[in-house]
Write a structure and sequence with these properties.
Chain lengths: ~350, ~270
């Protein structure tokens, strides 16, 4: 397995949207790095640049320290799983899995052995003679994964591989990918728009917005110390409450923005007064949407485990002051906050 | 109402063909007597017999097959590569090129007959197979490129990307992924090319001198004698000329209709 790096990578589409710019990224050998961000943030563009399917307008792509910016995708020795799976519809599952090996002129015995191994790892053995059209969504997804596995490539690139699966299958497939990654010690770049998937899968997570990297950090770091209000609001569900300090009566610098995660706030005797708006019971807890009694009655979300308040009633909200996130007027994290 | 319209349309389309088939088996003097409406009691295959025995109709059929087949064999691969480049490779002025292509294919044939004749005579290709195949290739290519570009653009791009990541070169991607998936498009384009050559009359008449290289439409047109037109044989010839067209279309019909790309991406 290998390291992958992007140095000052930029991709501008002439006359169209921004593309991506100023991307510096290092992926260590055996690391699973997740690229996450809202749709259109450039995460798939970055993945295609790394794969060689598109060329950067500036900057370099490195694999194992070697500059591959001008190397075509065929010679980069990376495997990719597409969101659409991109299975060859006119080939059987076996041929889909074997294709990359045939192109590389492997001998029959090697092809048979590798396809058999991948098929066993992914439970595809009974399906080898079928065509993609005869498979269910989950089976197609596994074939797409298997096609990457047989290659034994330098690294795996996965572009939203689970977004077409229904939720129960998704959790299962996610665990499968995680297991394979740990077992192979594979270098993997995983693109998703789902922050929860990013947190559960990644050794590190790179958050992107509008073509730029906002923060690259471990899931814990990202959750506990978001670098700015975008990351703070994007990571975690329900989203962090981000409000001007004045509306919470906090004696921080007047123009600062304060962030409080819903589960760090509680209903108590004293604190900021608020009206209960709507409730979203989730089984193990309830998401309570509040309207603060402050200018513009901003929304404030908390989660409660026990007795939920009744909608329309007035409550008091307080929070653990050591769990406050503080950001300056530009949305950057203040170094003083925890 | 819609059924009535459909019936009317079918009658309009099939009427002349039925009439052609009926008249081709009737004696010459009954063709215009209204007899086909009253029954086919005097029907015979005399015209067909005359067609092949006296007129040697097999020769023009052979000529047509050779010319149309060669043209398709040469023009289809060229058009395929050209169309793929237009559909997928980054190039400047693609739009302009496609527009020009369409403009060229609308050129009235008659305007180039004289210059083409001079060119072909100078290169000694008048009254030869290449003398017909070359103009046919140039005249079928624009439309074929235009059609195939559309087909290639419809193919999911992810499949080609996946094949390139799998290590396949551009030509290999075309062979292994693009062509099998574009097969319906290729088949219908090939049919259109073949039919263009099969039906083409003006060039075939202008660039051939004798029966050796004359194609079916020219042969049929020259059936008319000095004092009379042998309608029975003309119509029998027309029926024979229609036959390959019907066979080809029926044979490829399922291939054209079949959605080969199903299952490639999420369903």
């Amino acid at each position: 397995m290998s390291t992958i790096a992007a140095e000052a990578v930029e991709r501008i589409y002439p006359g169209r949207h921004v593309g991506i710019a100023g991307i510096d990224l290092d992926v260590a050998d055996g690391e699973l790095l997740v690229l996450v961000g809202p749709s259109g943030c450039g995460k798939s563009t970055l993945l295609r640049l790394i794969a060689g399917l598109d060329s950067p307008t500036a900057g370099r792509i490195l694999i194992d320290g070697a500059d591959v910016t001008a190397v075509p995708p065929q010679q980069r020795d990376l495997a990719m799983v597409f969101q659409s799976y991109a299975l060859y519809p006119h080939m059987t599952v076996y041929d889909n899995l074997a294709y990359s090996l045939r192109v590389r002129r492997s001998d029959r015995a090697t092809i048979d052995a590798r396809v058999a191994a991948a098929a066993e790892a992914l439970d595809l053995e009974p399906l080898l003679d079928r065509r993609p059209a005869q498979l269910s969504g989950g089976q197609r997804q596994r074939v797409a994964l298997g096609r990457a596995l047989v290659r034994e490539p330098k690294a795996f690139l996965l572009d939203e591989p689970l977004s077409n699966l229904d939720p129960s299958l998704r959790t299962q497939a996610r665990a499968e990918i995680l297991r394979l990654q740990r077992k192979l010690g594979a270098t993997m770049i995983y693109v998703t728009h789902d922050q929860e998937e990013a947190l559960t899968l990644g050794h590190r997570v790179a958050v992107m917005r509008e073509g730029r990297l906002e923060q690259v950090a471990t899931p814990t770091e990202l959750y506990d110390r978001p670098a700015n209000t975008f990351v703070a609001g994007f990571i975690g569900s329900p989203a962090m409450n981000l409000l001007p300090a004045v509306s919470l009566g906090i004696g921080a610098p007047p123009d600062s923005i304060v962030g409080i995660r819903p589960h760090d706030a509680l209903l108590s005797g004293n604190g900021v007064r608020a009206t209960v708006d709507v409730l979203e019971p989730r089984g193990h807890d309830t998401v309570v949407h509040l309207r603060l009694e402050a200018a513009g009655s901003p929304e404030f979300v908390i989660t409660v485990r026990e007795s939920a308040p009744t909608p329309g009633s007035t409550v008091n909200v307080s929070w653990k002051s050591d769990r406050l996130h503080s950001f300056d007027a530009q949305g950057r994290r203040r170094s003083a906050s925890p | 109402m819609s059924r009535l319209l459909a019936a009317l349309l079918i009658a309009l389309l099939l009427g002349p063909i039925v009439w052609m088939l009926a008249a081709s088996v009737l004696p010459e003097n009954e063709i215009f007597s209204g007899a086909p409406v009253h029954g086919l009691t005097s029907a015979s295959l005399d015209h067909y017999r005359a067609l092949f025995d006296e007129r040697g109709f097999l020769l023009p059929i052979r000529n047509s097959l050779i010319v149309a087949g060669l043209t398709t064999l040469i023009a289809l691969p060229c058009a395929t590569l050209c169309a793929y480049a237009l559909a997928r490779l980054p190039m400047r002025g693609k739009g302009l090129f496609l527009a020009l292509l369409l403009a060229v294919s609308m050129f009235p044939q008659i305007s180039v007959v004289a210059p083409l004749f001079l060119v072909l005579r100078a290169s000694g290709l008048i009254d030869t197979y290449p003398g017909l195949v070359l103009p046919y290739v140039t005249f079928t290519m624009p439309l074929a490129v235009w059609l195939l570009t559309g087909f290639f653009r419809q193919l999911p791009r992810d499949l080609e990307d996946a094949a390139m990541i799998d290590g396949a070169s551009r030509l290999r991607v075309i062979r292994d992924v693009v062509l099998p998936l574009a097969a319906p498009g290729l088949a219908s384009t090939a049919i259109l090319m073949f039919l263009y050559c099969w039906n083409e009359f003006l060039f075939a008449l202008s660039f051939t001198f004798g029966p050796d290289h004359q194609t079916v439409p020219v042969a049929i047109a020259l059936f008319r004698g000095r004092y009379q037109i042998a309608w029975g044989e003309v119509l029998a010839g027309a029926a024979v000329a229609t036959l390959p067209v019907v066979i080809v279309v029926l044979a490829f019909q399922r291939r054209i209709v079949a959605g080969l790309t199903s299952g490639a991406i999420k369903g």
